[in-house]
Design a protein that fits this description.
Elements: E1 3-12, H1 17-27, E2 31-40, E3 43-52, H2 58-66, E4 75-80, E5 95-101, H3 107-117, E6 121-130, E7 137-145, H4 151-164, E8 168-173
Antiparallel strand pairs: 1-3, 1-4, 2-3, 5-7, 5-8, 6-7
Helix pairs in contact: 3-4
Amino acid sequence: MASVALISIFSRDRVGLVSAIADHLFSAGVNLRDTTFAALGTGAEFTSVCELPEGLKVADLDKGLAEIPELAGAEIRVVPFAFDPAPGPMGRVTHRVEVSGGDQLGLIARLSEIFTQYGANIVRLEAQKIPEAGGDRYVTRFAVWIPPDRAQPCLAAVSNTAGSLGLASRAEESAG
């Protein structure tokens, strides 16, 4: 079996960044598994769990990424991945939840605690401040696995908490 590595890159955001990284990895024979990219202010973060072809060493991949012109000055980290790359049942997204409105200090902490109380696992989290004419809007999106018998009360608790803070919330069951 191929070895598995975690690639983490933090750099200045620019057009063509993902293309340059993906092209280099493809050329090296690297197979991307779970991968995320996000622009973070004027920076950007690329993270991927990858299968390395036989003979490609982590250090060689790290060195090759550092030679990409678009990654000049980037923080690059390539390390062996110590976990099973295949997600278990709690890694499957059963629901997508979005809470939006004015920025609330501690919102992610409050909502993540609700998920914990109901035995739900946060699979992905995204939070973003969106500038708007009437003031900034803060949007938090959770992709979660919720035990089937606890989904309804969990989602009701999220909705009630959002409502008590003057925020809008919506949830949908994921297909698949």
